[in-house]
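Changelog excerpt

This revision adds worked examples to the README so contributors can see how folded entries look when concatenated. The first example is reproduced verbatim below.
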Amino acid sequence: MIAPVVYALIQPFVRLCFLNANPQDLPASAVLLGLTLSAYLLVTAFMVMPIYGLSLSFREAIVEVALLVAYTQVVLHIGAHPERYTQTVSALAGTGVIIGLLALPLAYSLYNSTLRGTANTPLLLFAYVLVFAWMLVVYGHIYRHALSTGLFIGVMVGLGYIILTSVVIESVFPSPELQ
C-alpha cells in the first residue's frame, strides 16, 4: 500500500531529473512544498554530516534550505513570475533530494578518502563532477520554465544559486580542515 503512494510522490521528480517534466506539471501545493523542503533538509544534512557532525549539519542544511527559498523568491520576483514560487521550489527541492540521494555515496567516498589521506580516484572525482553537472542542468531546466526563458539563462540562474550557497555556507560553516 505504501509503495504505490511513494512511487506516485517520487515519480514526477524523477521525470524532472530526466527533463521529461516541467515544474508547472507539479501541483501548487503547500503540502508538497513542505514535504519536499523537509526531505531536502534531511538529505542535505546527511550529505554534510561527515564534515560537520550531527548538530552542525542540520544547521547548515537549514541555511541551505533558507537560501533556496529566498533565492528562488527573489529570482521569480525579478522575472515577474512570483505566482510560480510553490511549484518551482517544490521542483528544486524534490529534484535536489533525488540527485542528493544518488550523490550521497560519492560524497561519503570522497570524504573518507580525504580523511584517510589517500588520493581520490579520477573515476570517483569524474562521477562527482557528472552528478554536479546533471544537477546544474536540472536546476537550469526548472528555472528556465519558471522564468519562461531559455535553458542557458536557466542554467546561469541555477549556477547563481549554487555559487551563492557555496559562498554563504563556506563563510558561515567553514570546513574543519580549513580552520
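The second example, added in the same revision:
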Amino acid sequence: MKIFLNSPNENWIVDRFVEEWNDYNTAITSKSIRASDIVWIISPWTWSKLSKNQLKKKKVLVTIHHIDEKKFDIEDFKNLDQYVNFYHVISKLTESKLKKITDKKIYYSPFWVSPKKWFPLQNKKIIRKKYNVANDEYLIGSFQRDTEMDLISPKLEKGPDNLLEILLEYKSSKKNLRVILAGNRRDYIVNKLIEHKIKYSYFNMISLKELNELYNILNLYIVSSRVEGGPQAIVECALTKTPLISTNVGIASEILHPDSIFDMNNFTSALPNIDHAYNKAKKFIIPKGFETFIKTMEEIHES
C-alpha cells in the first residue's frame, strides 16, 4: 500500500501535516502519484493541479476541512467529486454538512498533533521578558488570520468582530490587558485594537518554537470563529496547557469541556478547563494520532 499526499506548498498548517505524515510513515508513502495506490487529496483547493488521468486510476480520498455555506463552491465540489471514492473530515460538524451533499463514505478523524512542538514550559517570567511583556499583564492570545486578501475586510468566518467584542469586555475588567497576536493577515484586528486603545504585541510569521513559547505565557486563548475545520489551535492549547475558550466550531466540542464553549450571548461565563482539554487531546498525539488514518487507508486499499 502506497499513499500519495498533495501538499499545497503554501507554508500553511496543511504543509505541516504532510511533512509530519511523510516523516513518520515513509514505508507507506509515495512521492509519486503514479506509483501510489491511494491518492489523499489533503488540500482539496489544489486538486485541479493533479493529473486527472491518474485520479481516474487510483482510489481517491479527499479531506474536507470545513464547509462555509456562504463561500462553498458547489460546482467545484461536483467537478472534484467525479474523481473521489471517499471523503475525510476532521470534525463531526463538518461531517453532518458533508452528508447533505454526498452519499459517499465519510471517514472522521481529527488531525494528529506533535508533542515535540507543543508542550508546557517552565520559567514563564523569563519567556515574558523575552517578548517584552510585563509579568502583571493579562495576556489574551489569537494566532489565526482575521483579514481577507484585501488586507482590510474582516474574514468573518474567523469571527474577528466577535473577538473584538470580547476583548472590549475584558478591557473594562482587566486594566492590564494586552493582546498577543501571531500569524499573517492580522490587519483588521490590529487596526481595531489601535482604534480602541487596547495594548497589543504582534508577532508575524514566527517559528513553531516561538509560537509554543507564546502559548505558554498566555492567561487565555480565544477561538471566536463562526466556521472552522479544527482549528488546530485547540489541540495546541490543550497540549501546552493554555487556558482556552471557544465558540462551538470544528473540534471544540470534541476536545473542550462544555463550560469552555461559548456563544456571543454567554462568553463572559465561559471557563477554561485545562485538564479536560489535555486529557481529550492526548489521543491525537503522534504517533498514536496516526492510527485511525492508517486504519482508514488499509480499509480503502482493501476495498
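Reviewer comment on example two: The longest strand covers residues 59-64. The mean pLDDT is 94.
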